[in-house]
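Reviewers of the previous submission asked for a worked example of the structure-prediction workflow described in the proposal, so we include one complete record here. The input consisted solely of the amino acid sequence. No template or homolog information was supplied to the procedure at any stage.
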Amino acid sequence: MRRATLDALVAARRERRTVALVTELGTGAQHLADAAGARTGVEPAGNGEIFTHVFRPTPRLIVVGAVHIAQKLVPLARLADFAVTVVDPRAAFASAERFPDVGLSHDWPDKAVTALSPDSATAIVTLTHDPKLDDPALIVALRSSAFYVGALGSRKTHGRRIERLTAEGFDDAAISRIRAPIGLPIGALSPGEIAVSIMAEIVAARHGRTLQEVRV
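From that input alone, the workflow returned the following structure tokens.
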């Protein structure tokens, strides 16, 4: 690989951009290309073949609320190769003892989520069940390109949440991005089961799968 190509690839990874490295199998020549619609694999091109390797940014999960469900969710997310940050201004909850080897932020949720610059490879979940903490994070999340936004709470709770977000100026299309009640409907009851349902829904969303497709 030429140094210029390597430098460009490193820069794209640092900037969390999706790029495709295209290699002409006959000559070994390489270049970076737009990754839109690209898939990793070999395909014919001209009189030969090319190998395309799509490099995507590491998926991230921002968990707002260092609650019991979060303690179950974080290991699942890491098992699925997500980089995880737990946000909670309550330092007693968001502690290294309760969340070992995980990024922690004790800033207020809107400030913390903004600082993390959520992008199209980022999922955001709010789990505190406290509007004072969840709503500021959701406002930032809905203004971002995060591929998944989920919020814990019943349908009644979400109805009140919709009223508050509407008052903040969000329209129906924006608010409909919130997965609430959060998680796939698998009858989850315990914190561990709820964490499984949430992580399953996040993975499905990351790969563009709908609930109907997941059920097939």
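The chain has a mean pLDDT of 92. We consider this example representative of the routine output the project will generate in years two and three.
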